[in-house]
Design brief:
75 residues, mainly alpha, 3 helices, 47% helix, elongated
Length: 75
């Protein structure tokens, strides 16, 4: 399965994310718009939604995320 559109979320899912200015100046997050102020907060909120759904339904975080990806996948 191809993970189009979610590659930016991997660092957010894999460990606690920090804003771009908390990483080394050579880190790519300092130039990636998704890690800049305002965008960063919105992305952290969006990534938290599968976790909220998982907690409410008693499944793992990956299950709703993969279900959403499979639902939106173009054949």
């Amino acid at each position: 399965m191809q993970m189009r559109g979610l590659s930016w979320a991997v660092p957010l899912f894999s460990h606690p994310a920090k804003p771009a200015d908390e990483y080394d100046v050579t880190d790519m997050r300092n130039v990636d718009p998704r890690w800049q102020p305002d965008n960063f907060e919105k992305n952290v909120e969006a990534v938290g939604k599968p976790g909220d759904l998982a907690a409410a339904t008693g499944v793992t975080v990956s299950q709703p995320a993969l279900a959403a990806q499979a639902h939106h996948e173009v054949a």
